[in-house]
Hints:
63 residues; three-stranded antiparallel β-sheet; binds iron/sulfur cluster
Amino acid sequence: MKVTADHDRCQGHAQCFANAPGLYLLDDDGYIAMDSQEVTPGDEDAARRGAAACPERAISVID
Ligand code: SF4
């Protein structure tokens, strides 16, 4: 599984980070810092929760 972030959509709500702090790293202004990342086995549920929590739909999950 992989997650990708759309920086044009991100508005810095930090809900992704709140659900999966080890995966969705934020920059100093609270916007998502990663572009694309493989999800470590065992972190899939947290990755999906973080993506679903984003009010801007800025995170895509690719199985
Ligand atoms: S929840 Fe969405 S809008 Fe908020 S920081 Fe994460 S990606 Fe950006």
